[in-house]
Design goal:
Order of helices and strands: HHHHHHEEEEE
Largest sheet: 5 strands, antiparallel
Number of domains: 1
Distance between the termini: 90 Å
Number of helices: 6
Number of strands: 5
Shape: globular
Helix content: 25-40%
CATH class: Alpha Beta
Radius of gyration: 25 Å
Length: 241
Amino acid sequence: MQDSFDITTLIFIVLAIFVVWRLRSVLGQKTGSEQPPLDPISRRDPPLRPNTASADQDNVVRLPGANGARPTIDATATAAERWKGFAEPGTAMARALDEIARAEPSFDAASFIEGAQSAYEMIVSAFAQGDRKTLKDLLSREVYEGFERAITEREQRGEKVETTFVSVDKAEITGAEVQSKTAQLSLRFLSKLITVTRDAADHVVDGSPDTVVDVTDVWTFERALGSRDPNWKLVATEAGQ
């Protein structure tokens, strides 16, 4: 009996080792360097310090190629080369971008613009839908309070807004500033929208469901460099020229 028990036990041990080996070869194993999903207006690189906070993934805006990959950046490139097409050499904006890149070497202007454009579309749509939860995650406290107040007033009047993005024709950085390790980047968005406001009786009170409108917005995003939170939050909005 003892011999039979030992042989059976040995067979199960061998099978268990084989199964574990196959699972590791197929699924891989954690190395500690996996990248978390990127948030809206997020840097393409991971936080400088480990991010232990749990993120709500419902409102994630994935940047292009954001499956854990970092942008390809030439560390030997001069400032003039790195910011070509974004800022003229020697300008205040170029110096601010340099300062951001020194604090966070993987900062990439093109990727930032792509993420900001995604956030722009999400915020405009969330405001039209009265989606306070999404807005709260993407806006500074002061900006959120203004948006929330406008939504509440609209709801009290019984009005609803329908907004459809036709296109975002251009998104560009127009200003950059770093003060006390806090970075601010301003972007101008040129977009085409169809937007209409209806009252409680479904009558159009503003806009048109058949008219495409050209819209220019200048939005400013802010982030504390080196923060655990990788998000850039909207801190100011204005109508652009």
